[in-house]
Amino acid sequence: MPGPSFTRRSALWGGIAAAGALAAGCADTPVGAAAPAPTGAPPPTSPSPAPAPGGTAPGGPDRIMVVGHRGASGYRPEHTLAAYELAIRMGADAVDVDLVPTRDGALVARHEPEIGGTTDVASKPQFAARRTTKQIDGTTATGWFTTDFTLAELRTLRAKERIPETRPHNTLYDDRFPVVTFDEVLDLLDRLAAELRRPVGVLPEVKHSTYFASLGLPVEPALVDTLRRRGKDGPDSGVIIQSFETANLRALKAQVGCPLLQLVDSAGTRPADLVAANDPRTSDALLTPQGLRDVATYAAWLGPSKEWIVPLGPDDAAGPPTRLVADAHAAGLRVMPYTFRNENEFLPLQRRRGGAGAPADTYGDAFGEYQQFVAVGVDAVFSDDPDTALLAVST
Asked: In the chain, which residues have pLDDT < 50?
């Protein structure tokens, strides 16, 4: 595994560059330009396209990677083709795609299997009787679930903004975009790579691996089949597979050649596969020096929540950074924390602006937060606002 002395972007960029070169040689099939950002949202910036390894990125050859979290979800409803396209046109190096299965085994891009909060399913009388309650990884959820719908049925739904109180501008785009499959996302990214003539990466996340397997709808076989069918399962594919669980990543290590990323939830939580195996370890155990060395036996990347690197106190005030980035680098892992967002509620207390009465969509000092994480040596970031992230890490 390459150590941290390599250019920070090289683990992904070797594959993305190869994929971009391949796409650029194909017939050019342009995708329509993304719609302008809604009134009140900042206009996208236009950073220079990211180079292949060894080139000079804006801000230097070690400019960290920016991954559009569920696309440019600060500006469009998440996990829509519009959000993914906007992220890439803003200059993001790759996009993050959460994958959940349908009843007939298709992989669709949704943050969770419950879709009452991210689609218009509640307004469809023909689906009213499918509202139900399920236990998923120890959490009770009530609503409508992808595993109770065929792909054909999901295609009748339209996406909507998940957090409308915080992102009222995004509600302008409610009901305009369909639920899409992983293949459709990959088709879009291939077309954008060809049009923009630059590499474009993708980070599929396997959601709730143990839970879906218990339903007879495991995500991993369909994911591996899709990547193999499309020639994206190798080390030079521009793909990084991510999961909060550990056993599935260990198994995937023997099935695909693309890098793997171990996501780590907040302190005290337990990965679902460890719970199912009666393993008492919590997320904390993964991040000890010994735990990091173990993660490095199957993963190339570590994806911790931001608070593992800059802890927050009871009042959300940020404390001094921890040693996690240095410890992960010492174990041979690159670090990609989540999730960077511009709005006050997602920022430490010291970086919020406008006082207690500020509107929910008020932007805080996001640049200051990015710069603190860049200073401690992170290698990439997941961001809802790729334009902000790119400017922050390039200056």
From this structure: 1-11, 13-61
Residue 298 has a CB neighbour count (10 Å cut-off) of 16
386, two tokens? 């790729």
CB atoms under 10 Å from CB of 285, counted, come to 15
Residue 305 backbone dihedrals phi, psi, to 5 degrees = -65, 155
**CA–CA distance, 34 with 49 (Å, rounded to integer):** 17
259-304 pLDDT per residue, tens: 999 999 999 999 999 999 999 999 999 999 999 999 999 999 999 9
